[in-house]
Write a structure and sequence with these properties.
- The complex is a heterodimer.
- By secondary structure, chain A is mainly β.
- Chain A has one helix and ten strands.
- A five-stranded antiparallel beta sheet of chain A has the order 8-7-6-9-10, with no helix packed on it. In chain A, strands 2-1-5 form a three-stranded antiparallel beta sheet.
- The longest helix of chain A has 14 residues, at 23-36.
- Chain A is globular and about 70 Å long.
- Chain B is 35% helix and 19% strand.
- Chain B has a domain at 4-113 and 203-218: Peroxisomal Thiolase, Chain A, domain 1 (3-Layer(aba) Sandwich), CATH 3.40.47.
- The longest helix of chain B is centred in the N-terminal third of the chain and has 16 residues, at 23-38.
- Chain B has helices at 23-38, 54-57, 84-99, 115-120, 135-150, 154-167, 182-187, 215-218, 249-262, 267-270, 281-290, 299-304, 330-344, and strands at 4-11, 47-51, 76-80, 101-109, 190-192, 195-196, 205-214, 226-235, 273-275, 357-364, 370-377.
- Chain B has 13 helices and eleven strands.
- Classes of the chains: A mainly beta, B alpha/beta.
- At the A-B interface, helix 1 of A face helix 1 of B.
Chain lengths: 156, 379
């Protein structure tokens, strides 16, 4: 140690573990995927908007919601980004191969945007407005989490 | 200070693990309860303050995720990351600053993270974390410092747990109503000497909300307003070694300021009921002293003589206190909510007869680094 050296300290690799509750509507969302391989939204009786994933409240109307809406497994790309830096999934500790494409997808029949991965990393082959379909895990491999949706593929 | 009042309150039941409900459900539950209690709709709420902590929530900028459930869509919403009493203090400032009414909501789900890891992370990463200091072990140090300074015994500290768990039997929101004896506390599992399991509060899931209003808006509330007579905050040093752990100096300062605002000269006579942040039994004894209810070192004697029991001259923690339900952050706001119930005469079987002036207290940081004191009045 030089007598002018300014030191730092490293945290090590210990994590801070959590067990988050998913709640009533989040649980229904993942069960619907497992049982029917489709998305579930919820309609606000005030503004009529359908949002996915379903949640208990409409924020703007501050109303409690209960009208679940069965949606399909398809949607439209409204924005995307091909990501070139590595990302470690905090749930699995695994790195997703790069590049990968992050998609901002309007599920058919819904009024908000759902976010997931699109399995196309060539920017020249992907455009806003393209139709996509969700590709799910095999039902027997589903775990009730966001990885039960493997990715969205472009319907060409 | 211009007049301001608490016009609505809401609490969840406090439980070890609310597995079916998410943080958002808890916030929504207490938000709607506080608004119903006040007879307000969302249009009557000027702005919203949320109280949350990113480590407890496991979510960066955790406040933004509760905005919707707190009814804050399109409202001015801002956050305090600290005890609920400090959120309320900020809320009072917003009201005095002209917002008219402010909703303050605090939540935490202690069951979702690891309290040891989270509270260890309160401490300095260079000098303290590796030693294992956390909320419990640092408090054990404080208990040791306090007990040796004033000759307080473990049995005397145990009296607080006995009293508060018994009081909790009258509080439908409490997590741990229990009939226990000093012997039960003494023979409970050693956690960190001198603290035993029954000297320690649980970690709970829960939320609390209050609505503060200026005089004009308070008059529109459904129930008689509970007036804020004094509110003050004071903080001590971060490093434990830079503080005298045996004394609650910052509490004395905060209390002095709050009493001056409220015109209270003799708190032991003028306060009718108090809700204190007793995260551990010994803390209640220290806080009694810091609040000037007795002389330094007098907390144990005051408790032994029954002065802080139901029926005594200053019942302390009729709700069962933090020892009986400890949703971190929400716990201080719960103290205020309970102090409001007492003045409204709505505290049910935990009601202190004829209460006209109540005190609520919260702490933030290890070993009560900072304290926030609220004096509330019926008139």
């Amino acid at each position: 140690m030089k007598n002018t050296e300014l030191l730092t300290i490293r945290s090590g690799d210990t994590g801070m573990p959590y067990e988050w509750s998913i709640g009533k509507y989040g649980s229904r969302f993942f069960r619907e995927i497992r049982e029917h391989q489709r998305f579930l939204g919820i309609r606000c009786p005030g503004c009529g908007k359908v949002r996915v994933p379903p949640r208990r409240l409409c924020g703007p109307c501050f109303r409690e919601l209960d009208e679940l809406v069965e949606l399909s497994d398809t949607g439209i790309i409204t924005a995307f980004s091909v990501v070139n830096y590595p990302f470690i999934d905090p749930d699995t500790g695994l790195q997703r191969p790069i590049p990968y494409t992050y998609g901002y997808i309007r599920i058919d029949g819904s009024d908000n945007i759902f976010s997931h991965i699109i399995n196309e990393t060539d920017e020249s082959r992907i455009k806003v407005g393209m139709k996509v379909r969700a590709v799910f895990r095999k039902p027997e491999e589903m775990e009730g989490n966001i990885r039960d949706i493997r990715y969205f593929e472009i319907i060409r | 200070m211009e007049k301001a009042a608490i016009v609505g309150i809401g609490q969840t039941k406090y439980e070890r693990r609310k597995s079916g409900e998410i943080y958002y459900d808890l916030v929504y539950e207490v938000t709607t309860r506080a608004m119903e209690d006040a007879g307000y709709t969302l249009d009557d709420i000027g702005d919203v303050i949320t109280v949350s902590n990113d480590f407890w929530d496991g979510r960066t900028i955790s406040c933004m995720a509760v905005q919707e459930a707190a009814g804050a869509h399109d409202k001015n919403v801002s956050t305090v990351e600290g005890d609920g009493t400090l959120g309320a203090l900020y809320g009072l400032m917003r009201v005095l600053g002209g917002s008219g009414t402010t909703l303050i909501v605090a939540h935490s789900k202690g069951s979702e993270g690891d309290p040891r890891v989270i509270t260890n992370a309160m401490f300095d990463p260079v000098y303290h974390r590796s030693l294992g200091l956390d909320a419990v072990s640092s408090s054990a140090l404080q208990a040791s410092a306090y007990m040796s300074r004033y000759g307080v015994t473990e049995e005397q500290c145990a009296l607080v747990s006995v009293k508060n768990h018994k009081n909790a039997k009258n509080n439908p929101f409490a997590q741990l109503p229990m009939d226990i004896t000093v012997a039960d506390v003494m023979k409970s599992r050693k956690i960190a000497d001198p603290l035993k399991l029954l000297d320690c509060s649980p970690v709970s899931d829960g939320a609390a909300a209050i609505i503060i209003a200026d005089e004009k808006h308070a008059r529109k509330a459904r129930k008689k307003p509970v007036w804020i007579k004094g509110a003050a905050h004071c903080a001590d040093a971060y490093f434990l070694g830079d503080r005298n752990l045996a004394e609650a100096a910052s509490l004395r300062e905060a209390a002095k300021k709050a009493y001056a605002m409220a015109g209270i000269g003799n708190p032991a006579k003028e306060i009718d009921v108090a809700e204190l942040y007793d995260a551990f039994g010994y803390m209640e004894l220290m806080w009694l002293e810091g609040l000037g209810f007795c002389d330094p070192g007098g907390g144990a004697g005051m408790t032994e003589s029954g002065k802080t029991a139901m029926g005594g001259p200053i019942p302390v923690n009729p709700s069962g206190g933090v020892l009986s339900a400890h949703a971190v952050l929400a716990a201080g706001l719960a103290r205020i909510a309970e102090a409001v119930l007492q003045l409204r005469g709505e505290a049910g079987s935990r009601q202190v007869d004829g209460a006209r002036t109540s005190l609520a207290h919260g702490i933030n940081g290890p070993c009560g680094q900072s304290h926030c004191v609220w004096v509330l009045g019926k008139d």
